[in-house]
## 1
Amino acid sequence: MKYQELLKQHRLKATPQRMAIIELMYNAGHITIEELYQSIVKKFASISLATLYKNIHSMMDVSLIREVKVPGYKTKYEIEKSEHAHVMCTSCGELKDISLNPSSLLENRQFDLAGYKADDVAIVISGICPNCQKK
Amino acid sequence: MKYQELLKQHRLKATPQRMAIIELMYNAGHITIEELYQSIVKKFASISLATLYKNIHSMMDVSLIREVKVPGYKTKYEIEKSEHAHVMCTSCGELKDISLNPSSLLENRQFDLAGYKADDVAIVISGICPNCQKK
DNA sequence: GCAAATCTTAAAATTACTTTCAAAACTTTA
DNA sequence: TAAAGTTTTGAAAGTAATTTTAAGATTTGC
């Protein structure tokens, strides 16, 4: 199981609960705490929401996962991967990655960042997905 | 008071509570519900959080104000103004507008938006503000 | 295998947000 | 300008989201 490795690299203990979280998150792409809980409870009947929240935070602290806050919706979480942006459908709520590299977008322009030293760029584009456009 | 006009233009009644909300939001730039409540209660001792939430939502519905969700922090609200992006200091929490126009940024490049029809682009850059850099 | 460090869980607590409902404040309408 | 209708306010109760606590269980490095 590669997830075990992933956790160890980040100096976190590889508990079964954590591996399940990562697996679910990996398969879902983006997932809310609630969805995560619904799925994981099938495997670990006694898992507690506190465990989910705590693990989500430990993994965020070591940049293994990332929080995606979208206007008007619940926060979702994803495995950290190469930089990308998000499109969110305001009709059905689908969240999708797009391969727009946020920091390269800024690089070739000299924006006035008001003196800030930028570490991270989060881009969420809201719109209507192809499916909902048809309706 | 111009705030009265602003509300009427959006077909909302210009109640004193709403005008106070707008005024505070305008002066603060970006404000959380909690901060808003702390300030407004000084003027309207009996105002309820429910009123704040309700008014925030009415004003969002008519695009008078806008929700800004920032990774790791509480949701803030701002008066809708011309398009812009945000920088947020991960050290002190300060949120600042920068004059980067999100949609023009996308216009002159043909991004693959996975078939989405884009309505809105939210950009939040996280980093360290000039003040915190000194420390 | 053992000890140290870390993790899991239930339960309670806290914080965030929403709904309900009656009274008050406004707007119509005639 | 009074009655009728509509909207808003705010208290209270309700739901949802997140954190804390403390005790027992697991993982890891040696």
## 2
Amino acid sequence: MLDAPNVDRQSRRREQTRREILDAAWDVARSAGLTGLTLRDVASRVGMRAPSLYSHFDSKHAIYDAMFGEAWTAYEEIKLAEESRLTDDLRECAHLIARTFFDFAVADPPRYQLMNQRVIPGFEPSPENYAPAVRVLAAAQVIAAERGLRDPDDLVLLLAVIGGLIDQQIANDPGGDRFARMLPRAVDMWADGVGLPRTTTTEKDTR
Amino acid sequence: MLDAPNVDRQSRRREQTRREILDAAWDVARSAGLTGLTLRDVASRVGMRAPSLYSHFDSKHAIYDAMFGEAWTAYEEIKLAEESRLTDDLRECAHLIARTFFDFAVADPPRYQLMNQRVIPGFEPSPENYAPAVRVLAAAQVIAAERGLRDPDDLVLLLAVIGGLIDQQIANDPGGDRFARMLPRAVDMWADGVGLPRTTTTEKDTR
DNA sequence: GTCTATACACCGATAGAC
DNA sequence: GTCTATCGGTGTATAGAC
């Protein structure tokens, strides 16, 4: 039997090193692009040589995989924190969720690329790290269904609309807000299209 | 002075070699992914060594650049051929244009990635090869305006909706039609949202 | 277990012979 | 115009120091 505190300390240390590596990987991705990430860059940022990373990750794809899981987990946490602010009105909820997701995506384009586009040749997320993505979508489906949305495809459509605007914003107006400004209209169009009643309050987000 | 026919023959030969290289590049991109393209792969497909490509293109990015222009030009030609089938009804036109663009995109995901997403670190299309993309959008704006669409942003919104569905289709159901089937509903939602009259004919595309 | 050193095959790009 | 040779870079595997 191993000494429990020792095991704990070691595995905690290990976990911490993984954290540092992943943080460095995010840094590199943000400055060199997602596919511009290199192991040597990542390693040098944590004071290692590239091969040393293999003590903590099986391959470069394994790093991408962990990043994929982290990205969706980060968004999941934001969404959970946001749930307390959700009302019974689905249209309002859609506005809130759309804005949150849009801002989350645009704040870190490489992260969005990793989450929602197939950019890295040969990379597919492992089931383990794909799980948070599935959970987020399932939770959104529940929220929508509880508020009267019948067809699950309707939610998919909303996500497609938001995703389309995110794409345009990142590709054609990075750093700007040309497409961000169109988000409320897009959400209202969707809400009208799926038959949600018009909200009467003037609180609607039109920034 | 150079012999004119000779110049012609030489420059035609040169142009043909460029064509072969670009065709090979498309082949490689389709089989290895857009960012998985390598000069050695391209060269071997045209019976050359990699450095020889530099006699025809300044860099790998220059090849991407030419491909970018080709992709938008190809779509521009499809759109021009399609114009004869356009009616006066903007909703109908939107359905047709959406379907055409969706099919065009899904038929060749790396091409779509190159056209509409910023996937290659450091690559930005040259003004020359960006031009067809601008022309296509401008032509679409004219078509929409002629049929009564007032706000140019409304067309951008339609393109975002279509793009969002394309993303989902490519990333989450490649080869399938889960999101393709949602396209007509999405277009109708948009048409309703911008105040277009409902088409009364039963000819509507619901496949 | 953790890391380094070394090595390999591959990459984009350049120089220079032919 | 195309080749060979080569450069500095990449991901990755492995042997071995600690």
